Structures are given as C-alpha cells and as structure tokens.
C-alpha cells in the first residue's frame, strides 16, 4: 500500500548566537509527500510559533515515522484547521484504518471531495488513536460490532487484468453478488 | 432473492484482482464499508477492498483478528482446502489452471483421448439406435 502522505519527525532550532549559546530545540511531527516539503512545512509552522526563520535556523534531524502495527485496525481522530472560501474553520474527523498515514490520506481526499479544500489549505492540528468507546461519529461507530455481518449487494464484473478488457461482450453480466 | 453469502469474520473469499489473484483468503475483520482486513496462511495480514474479493460459501469459526497459529488451526478444522477443491467452483478453477499449463505433448495426448472417448460414445449411440429401430 503506497501512501501519498508520509509522516515525518522534523527537529530544528535557531542558530546559536552570542546571546543565546544553546537555543531551544523544537520537534514537529507533520505530514508531507516528501522530505523537502516536510522541512519547508516545519519552518512555516515554526515561524508562526517562534521568532525563527529558515535563514537563521538549522535543521537537526528529519526522520520518517512508520506505522508500528499496520495489521490492526484503529480508529483515528484528526483535528484540523482548514481554509474555506470564506475563512478558517476547525474540524474534527474520524477514520477507521490500519495505519495513520492511511487515515490522513482519507482525510485529505474527503476534505477535497466534501468541502473542495485543497491539501495546502489544510493544517493538521492533532491526531490520536481513539478507543472505540470514545468515538463520536456514527459512521465509524457502526463498525464497532464484533459480529458484523452484511451482504455485498452489487457485484461489479471486472476482468482480472486490464489487458483482458474488451469493449463488447457476448452476454450480459450477472450482477447478483 | 435473499442473500446467502455475507461479509463476516471468518468468511473465505477468493481474490479476483491484483497481486494475490486466485488466492483464498479469510476475512478477519471489517475496516469500513469498502475494506476488510484479510489473512491467509502464506501472506502478511493486510487490507483489501471488497471489489477485489469474491465471497465463497465457506465460512470458518474464528474470533475477530486471530493470530496466525489460530487461523491456520481454524482453517484445518473447517477443512477449507478440501471443501474448496471438491466444490464445483474450485474444481473448475483447478481444471482451468491445468489447461493453461499444458505443453504441446499434453495437448496431443488430450486430442487422442478425446477422439477415443467420442468413438466409444458413438458406438453406444449406434447400439441404442439399433435397439429402438
């Protein structure tokens, strides 16, 4: 499963000066498509929080964070701040996925489809793995059922490889399950 | 027509698209409306879209997300391999695979066998025709 958005841990600080020999070191966890963008985003956020810029700061470390347990299903709660056509808004969204990167990717695509928000207008404030009892959204809570059972109602007939695709078929496909 | 094959924990499904095409996997948990967590003895547990799965009639008794050992034991207990290979669907797939892996000599042998079988059938038909005529 290749994800577009990767999670990075970026560590940086302002450059040491005569007045401040050991400036404070700051660490951020953010999502970006690659390392270069992650570093850029780090300075963007840090500029808003502290009086430091990329020109008078230094990057100490950047590491990608991978999912610890990609084989278990978790409920992710994502707090975000996004820019709509009329102003900034905060949102809390929940997703069920195996990895946090998958959940974040779901969030970006859902924001794009439901609210027409492009990914550069979204800032992830916080993410957390939510235990099932504390989930707020019905659409995630409906899958918290150990005896879940539902039929697949519509079977899309699809060839096993795209090479075998044909425009015309001899008979109509059977769509029942 | 009520539904007979449900997506549930323990349902055996056939992968019909992608890298694991043709494999039998077990649905071990449901992630959301479109995806399930599937597992098989020879693969790492992973997520799969329902569009890539075709449900079968076979279901095994497992709890949500068992570990590999329990899953393999449950597959043995449910006798999934034999049930699949004796079902008409499973047999058809085995025949398809066999036919695809024939070499020219095998096809020659099949041609001879077909001719022989047709000859025997025609003899019996002639006999029956003579009796009724």
Description:
The complex is a heterodimer of chains A (177) and B (133). Chain A is an alpha+beta fold and 177 residues long. Chain A has helices spanning 35-49, 100-115, 138-141, and strands at 6-14, 25-32, 57-65, 74-83, 88-97, 122-130, 149-151. Chain A has a 3-stranded antiparallel beta sheet with strand order 2-1-3, with helices on one face. In chain A, a hairpin with a 4-residue loop joins strand 4 and strand 5 (88-97). The relative contact order of chain A is 0.14. The model of chain A has no long low-confidence stretch (mean pLDDT 93). In chain B, helix 2 crosses helix 3. The model of chain B has no long low-confidence stretch (mean pLDDT 92). Chain B is an alpha+beta fold. In chain B, strand 2 and strand 3 (24-30) form a beta hairpin. Chain B has helices at 68-78, 80-86, 88-100, 104-132, and strands spanning 6-8, 11-15, 24-30, 35-40, 43-49, 53-59. Helices cover 45% and strands 26% of the residues of chain B. Chain B has 4 helices and 6 strands. Strand 7 (149-151) of chain A pairs antiparallel with strand 1 of chain B, so a sheet runs across the interface.
In short:
The complex is a heterodimer of chains A (177) and B (133). Chain A is of the alpha+beta class. Chain A has helices spanning 35-49, 100-115, 138-141; strands at residues 6-14, 25-32, 57-65, 74-83, 88-97, 122-130, 149-151.
Radius of gyration of chain A, taken over Cα atoms and rounded to an integer in Å: 22 Å
Main structural class of chain B:
alpha+beta
- Main β-sheet of chain B, in a few words? 5 strands, antiparallel
Mean pLDDT of chain A: 93
Helix content of chain A: 10-25%
Q: What sequence of helices (H) and strands (E) makes up the elements of chain A?
A: EEHEEEHEHE
What share of the residues of chain B does DSSP label as strand, in percent?
25-35%
Count of alpha/pi helices of chain A: 3
Distance between the termini of chain B: 47 Å
* Overall radius of gyration of chain B: 21 Å
Largest interface comes to: A-B, 25 and 26 residues
Q: Could you list the spans of chain A in which at least 5 consecutive residues all have pLDDT below 50?
A: none
Output the strand order for the largest sheet of chain B: 5-4-3-2-6
Strand content of chain A: 25-35%
Q: Outline the low-pLDDT stretches of chain B.
A: none
Give the ordered list of helices and strands of chain B: EEEEEEHHHH
Overall 3D form of chain A = elongated
Number of strands of chain A: 7
Please state the structural category of chain A: alpha+beta
């Amino acid at each position: 499963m290749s994800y577009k958005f990767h999670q990075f841990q970026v560590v940086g600080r302002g450059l040491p000066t005569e007045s401040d020999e050991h400036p404070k070191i700051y660490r951020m966890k953010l999502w970006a498509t690659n390392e270069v963008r992650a570093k850029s985003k780090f300075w963007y956020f840090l500029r808003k929080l502290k009086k430091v810029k990329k020109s008078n700061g230094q990057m100490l470390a950047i590491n990608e964070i991978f999912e610890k347990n990609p084989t278990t299903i978790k409920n992710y709660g994502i707090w975000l701040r996004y820019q709509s056509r009329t102003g900034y808004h905060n949102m809390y969204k929940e997703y069920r996925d195996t990895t946090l990167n998958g959940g974040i990717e779901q969030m970006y695509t859902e924001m794009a489809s439901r609210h027409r928000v492009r990914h550069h207008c979204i800032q992830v404030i916080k993410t957390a793995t939510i235990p099932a009892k504390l989930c707020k959204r019905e659409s995630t809570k409906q899958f918290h059922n150990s005896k879940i059972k539902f039929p697949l109602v519509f079977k899309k007939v699809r060839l096993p490889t795209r090479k075998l695709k044909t425009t015309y078929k001899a008979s109509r496909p059977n769509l029942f399950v | 027509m009520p539904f007979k094959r449900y997506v549930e924990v323990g349902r055996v499904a056939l992968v019909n698209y992608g890298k694991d095409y043709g494999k039998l996997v077990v649905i071990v948990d449901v992630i959301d409306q479109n995806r399930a967590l599937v597992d098989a003895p020879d693969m790492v547990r992973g997520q799969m879209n329902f569009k890539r799965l075709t449900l079968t009639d076979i279901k095994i008794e497992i709890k949500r997300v068992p570990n590999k050992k329990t899953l393999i034991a449950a597959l043995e207990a449910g006798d999934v391999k034999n049930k699949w290979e004796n079902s008409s669907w499973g047999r058809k797939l085995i025949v398809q695979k066999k036919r695809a892996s024939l070499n020219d000599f095998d096809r020659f042998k099949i041609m001879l066998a077909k001719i022989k079988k047709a000859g025997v059938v025609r003899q019996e038909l002639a006999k029956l025709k003579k009796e009724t005529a």
